[in-house]
Write a structure and sequence with these properties.
3 helices; mainly alpha
Amino acid sequence: ERDQVIAAYIADSEADWVRRGPRRQVIEALAARVAEGERIALACWCKPRACHGDWIAGKVLQEVKNADVRFSV
C-alpha cells in the first residue's frame, strides 16, 4: 500500500511539474535558497522508510545542480 501511495504522489507531482504547478514552484523556490547557500532540512516521520519526501529532495537537488550549470555559463 505504501508503494502505491508513493507512486500516486510521484505521478501527480510529475504532472504538476510539467504544468509548472504549485509543487514545482515551491521546489524551485527551495532549490534557489539552497543554491544561495541556505541549509534546508526536509523531515518526514516515514524515514528511514521510503516516502514521497525522497521525490521532493531529489527534485530540489536536481534543480540546485541545474542552477549551478545556469550560473556557471
